[in-house]
Design brief:
Layout: E1 7-17, E2 23-34, E3 39-43, H1 50-57, E4 65-70, E5 73-74, H2 80-90, E6 91-95, H3 106-111, H4 119-123, H5 125-135, H6 151-163, E7 169-173, H7 181-197, E8 201-206, H8 209-212, E9 217-222, E10 225-228, H9 237-245, H10 251-259
Parallel strand pairs: 3-8, 3-9, 6-7, 7-8
Antiparallel strand pairs: 1-2, 1-4, 4-5, 9-10
Helix pairs in contact: 5-6, 6-7, 9-10
């Protein structure tokens, strides 16, 4: 019997019509299948369509051509209400700029998606959110607001919020882009660990090869075309560098990834920053391409 993919894209294309009536092709003939427990990295330059692809996988947008399937069902046939509930229960989003609610505590931010739940999940939302914050190492910071947290701590709160409903699919858009290398490596190790525990699929959109190397499957997105490539980081530095050259990354970065992989046990940045250096929690994660945002009623949309 053929196994059903968690999410599958078949012949997916996305384009927009510009003011001069010309057509801008963002994605072209995308073929991709993601299974439960899978970890996929998609590497591409800014403007290559990575965020548009992520939004299509997360059912925030619809393709111009082709089909998106979720657990064997075509998304295009789902009514909006059902699609919103399906996304809310099954998809968690982690963004580069954290998108935490300003002035709200870490506990309130993480509990927010459970406000759309029902029954026991709704009534136990504070207890569940507290447990998730403890799981990411922030049990002592539950009453802190984003302004009082360091960048690493803010991203851990965002991860806890994305995972609090135990989604089947986790979509991470440049999750370490606003962090230093050491903190970013620790955050990705935590995200990998929690996704593995839940047997959730993890798709990471990134331009950082250190982050991409953690995945089991790797894709390159360029000019809207998605192609697989080998980024297994073999011991031989020359072989790894050749793989990285294919995605046109500086050779010195390729050599550093091959010779010095990120230490997954590195501690996460835990000291609060000065107010002037803390990223604004109100900053929005802007997609590289013209993707359509979800409605504000979306239960797991982190920008709510």
């Amino acid at each position: 019997m053929e196994l059903v993919s968690l999410v599958r894209l078949e012949g997916v294309a996305k384009h927009v019509i510009l003011p001069d009536d010309s057509r801008l092709d963002i994605l072209r003939n995308i073929e991709l299948a993601i299974a439960a427990g899978d970890h996929v990295a998609i590497v591409g330059r800014s403007g290559s369509g990575k965020s548009t692809l992520l939004n299509l996988m997360g059912m925030l947008d619809r393709p111009s051509e082709g089909a998106v399937w979720f657990r064997g069902e075509p998304v295009r046939k789902m009514r909006k209400g059902r699609l919103d509930k399906l996304r809310g229960r099954n998809v968690g989003f982690v963004f580069q700029q954290f998108n935490l609610l300003a002035g709200r505590t870490a506990l309130e931010n993480v509990a927010m998606p459970l406000g759309y739940a029902s029954g026991r999940a709704f009534w136990n939302r504070r207890r569940t959110a507290t447990a998730m914050l403890e799981r990411v190492g922030l049990g002592h910071r539950i009453e802190s607001t984003p302004e009082q947290l360091s960048g690493g701590e803010q991203q851990r709160v965002a991860i806890a919020r994305a995972l609090v409903r135990r989604p089947a699919l986790i979509l991470a858009d440049e999750p370490t882009g606003a962090l230093d290398v050491e903190t970013g490596g620790s955050v990705m190790a935590l995200l990998d660990e929690i996704a593995s525990e839940a047997d959730a699929a993890l798709v990471t959109i990134t331009h950082d090869l250190h982050v991409a190397a953690r995945a089991r499957r790797h894709y390159r997105l360029e000019a809207g075309v998605l192609t697989p490539f080998d980024l297994s980081a073999p011991a031989a530095g020359a072989a790894a560098a050749a793989a990285y050259d294919r995605i046109e990354i500086a050779p010195e970065l390729a050599e550093s990834v091959a010779a010095a992989p990120v230490d997954a046990a590195a501690p996460v940045d835990g000291e609060p920053r000065d107010a002037a250096s803390t990223p604004s929690p109100e900053a929005e994660a802007v997609p590289e391409a013209e993707s359509t945002p979800a409605s504000e009623a979306d239960p797991v949309e982190v920008a709510s």
